[in-house]
Design a protein that fits this description.
Strand content: 15-25%
CATH topology of the largest domain: Ribosomal Protein S5, domain 2
Structural class: alpha+beta
Distance between the termini: 35 Å
CATH architecture of the largest domain: 2-Layer Sandwich
Bound molecules: L-homoserine
EC number: 2.7.1.39
Helix content: 25-40%
Keywords: Amino-acid biosynthesis, ATP-binding, Cytoplasm, Kinase, Nucleotide-binding, Threonine biosynthesis, Transferase
Largest sheet: 7 strands, mixed
Order of helices and strands: EEEHEHHHEEEHHHHHEEHEEH
Shape: globular
Number of strands: 11
Radius of gyration: 20 Å
Main location: cytoplasm
Number of helices: 11
Catalytic activity: L-homoserine + ATP = O-phospho-L-homoserine + ADP + H(+)
Protein name: Homoserine kinase
C-alpha cells in the first residue's frame, strides 16, 4: 500500500573485505546517509551536502532509477518522485557510499509502496547492481555480514559485532574508484595464496563470532587483493605491516580503498598512539588524510518515519555530522 506521506530512511556506511574476505565480508559503520522519498506530480531530486556534488538531479539519478526497478518488480507504477538525499559518507574512499545509495534507494522505494519485497529480495537486487554482496549486505542488514553470491541469489549470515570492537578509519583526501582498484588485481592466483586467504577468512569469521580478539591481527592478513592494491595507496604497505605494533587489533584496506581501517579494542589505552602513527605515516608519504573513530553499526537500513512532519533537512537535523 502506498505511503502518501512519503518515507525517510537512514543507511549506514560499510567496510568490505576486512582483509581476506574479498567480495564476501562486510561490516556496517556508524556513519550514515539519508534518503527521503515521496510520490509527486513531477520528479524533483534534491541533494544536500558536499558529498553529493556532480550527482545528476534528473531521471538519470541512480536512486530514481533503482526505485523504478523496485516498482517494476512489485508490479506498481510510481513514475514521478520527490527524492531528497544527504550523506556523511565520503565518496569513492572505500566506505560503501555507492552501496548505501543502492540499498537506500531499494529500501525507501519498497517502504514507499508498503514493503511488498522481502529483505532477501532487496539483497539479491542490491548485489546484482553492485556486483558483490559485501558492502550492500552490511548496509542493508547492519552488523557483520558474510555472504555468498551465485550471480542470482545471495546467501548470508549476519552477526552482531563484538561489543569491544571500535573502528578507526584513516581517510586519504584522494579518491580511488572501485573499478580502478579492481583492474590491478591478477586474474589468477596460486593455490598457496588461495589457501592462505580461505584459512584466514574462515578464522576471521569464527574469531569475530566467538569474540577471539587475540586472533584478529593474524586472521586479517590477505594475499588476494591488498598486496596488489598497495601501490595505489602510499603508506599502505607499511601501515598493514606495523599498525598492530601501534595498538590495532587488526588492520586492512577498507573495501577497494584508499581508506585504511583498524579494528581497535575500545578499552585500549593506545588509541592516540595508533591514530598519530596512521596519520604520520600518510603524511610522510605526502598524503593528506583525516582520522575518524567509528563504531560498528548494528542497525542496517532503517525506516525512520514519513516525510510529513517537516522538511527533509529539519527531519535529519541533529543526526548529521556536518
Ligand atoms: N570487495 C570489493 C573490492 C569492495 O574490494 O573490490 C569494493 O566495493
Amino acid at each position: 500500500m502506498m505511503q502518501p506521506e512519503g518515507v525517510l530512511v537512514r543507511i549506514p556506511a560499510s567496510t568490505a573485505n576486512l582483509g581476506p574476505g574479498f567480495d564476501t565480508l562486510g561490516m556496517a559503520l556508524s556513519l550514515y546517509s539519508w534518503i527521503g522519498m515521496k510520490e509527486a506530480r513531477q520528479t524533483v531530486i534534491r541533494l544536500y551536502g558536499s558529498e553529493m556534488e556532480g550527482i545528476p538531479t534528473d531521471k538519470s539519478n541512480l536512486v530514481y532509477k533503482i526505485a523504478q526497478m523496485v516498482f517494476c518488480e512489485a508490479g506498481v507504477q510510481v513514475p514521478e518522485l520527490e527524492i531528497s538525499m544527504y550523506s556523511d559518507i565520503p565518496l569513492t574512499r572505500g566506505l560503501g557510499s555507492s552501496a548505501s545509495a543502492i540499498v537506500g534507494a531499494l529500501f525507501a522505494a519498497n517502504a514507499l509502496i508498503g514493503s511488498p519485497l522481502t529483505e532477501a529480495k532487496l539483497f539479491d537486487m542490491a548485489t546484482a547492481i553492485e556486483d558483490h554482496p559485501d558492502n550492500v549486505g552490511a548496509s542493508l542488514f547492519g552488523g557483520l555480514v558474510t555472504a555468498v553470491w551465485d550471480g542470482l541469489h545471495a546467501d548470508y549470515i549476519r552477526m552482531e559485532p563484538h561489543e569491544d570492537l571500535e573502528v578507526l578509519v584513516v581517510i586519504p583526501e584522494f579518491q580511488l574508484s572501485t573499478s580502478e582498484a579492481r583492474k590491478v588485481l591478477p586474474v589468477q592466483i596460486s593455490r598457496k595464496d588461495a589457501v592462505y586467504n580461505i584459512s584466514r577468512s574462515s578464522l576471521l569469521v569464527a574469531a569475530l563470532a566467538q569474540g577471539r580478539l587475540d586472533l584478529i591481527s593474524r586472521a586479517m592478513s590477505d594475499r588476494l587483493h591488498q598486496p596488489y592494491r598497495a601501490k595505489l595507496v602510499p603508506g599502505m604497505a607499511e601501515i598493514l605491516e606495523k599498525a598492530v605494533q601501534h595498538g590495532a587489533l587488526g588492520i586492512a584496506l577498507s573495501g577497494a580503498g584508499p581508506t585504511l581501517l583498524a579494528l581497535v579494542d575500545r578499552h585500549s589505552d593506545r588509541k592516540k598512539e595508533l591514530e598519530a602513527y596512521l596519520l604520520n605515516t600518510m603524511k610522510a608519504e605526502g598524503i593528506r588524510a583525516s582520522a575518524c573513530w567509528l563504531n560498528p553499526s548494528s542497525e542496517g537500513a532503517q525506516l525512520l518515519g514519513s516525510m510529513s512532519s517537516g522538511s527533509f533537512l529539519e527531519l535529519i537535523k541533529g543526526e548529521v555530522k556536518a
